[in-house]
Amino acid sequence: MGNSVWKDTWLITVRNIKTTLRNPFSFIPNLIISAFFLLVYEAGLSGIAELPTFEGANYLAFILPVSIVSAAIGGAGGAGQGIVKDIENGFFSRLLLTPASRLAIVLGPIIAGMLQLLVQTILIICVGFLLGLKVETGFLGVLFVLLIAIGWGLAFAGYSAGVALRTKNAQASQSGTLIFFPLIFLSTTFVPYELLDAQWLKIAATINPTTYIFESMRSVLIDGWVFSEMIQGILAIGIACAITITFAAVSAKKAVARG
């Protein structure tokens, strides 16, 4: 049974990846926008790094996680779009008539969305290196950033898949992921926590999981191996994945029940 689930998941994941590659314009715009923001942030805001609070840190390394997280929100939404497309063309209903694992039917698009984000993150980091990015912890630090990006992408893909299964509507699925964009700006997006003036914004940043994602990435990019911040980021991802994948699983169960 276990082998069957993994085999079905692999086959459905590969199918979703091939579908995405046939239509590259489904992910290229999001990649271009994330890289563009990185260029704009670095060119327009890098002077902030001269403030004493930054202690001479490279602003490019500080802002890189913002581009990665924004790519996660846009890119992982492809999981939901793929499910809606399968529902609309009848492929989802045909899958339900096969012996394929119901869990695999949901996990396939989610994993494909996560892998799509992995490729996007690697390309964004490459752009960062072309702009002069320096990573304090070297290659292992880059691997940790990729690990965090994969986890965050998995969480968003789970949410996107859940919304798609609930609504069975492409526009609703796409709109559902947009509500997460405010999370980016209610965080330590452009400046450290100490430079946030408004008290309400400090409170929002404290309870915002995106803050801990940013800080975990920045710790390895700028400060070195700060394990307390790294663990906070990992915990934030673990909680988010548990919530969103459970949401996707419950939504899939109801979708299967409705046929």
Automatic annotation (TrEMBL):
Transmembrane residue ranges: 21-41, 61-84, 105-133, 139-165, 177-193, 230-250
GO cellular component: ATP-binding cassette (ABC) transporter complex
Intracellular or extracellular location(s): Cell membrane; Membrane
PROSITE patterns xref list: ABC_TM2
UniProt GO molecular function: ABC-type transporter activity
Keyword Ion transport: no
Family recorded in the similarity comment: Belongs to the ABC-2 integral membrane protein family.
Official protein name in the record: Transport permease protein
The species this protein was found in: Halobacillus salinus
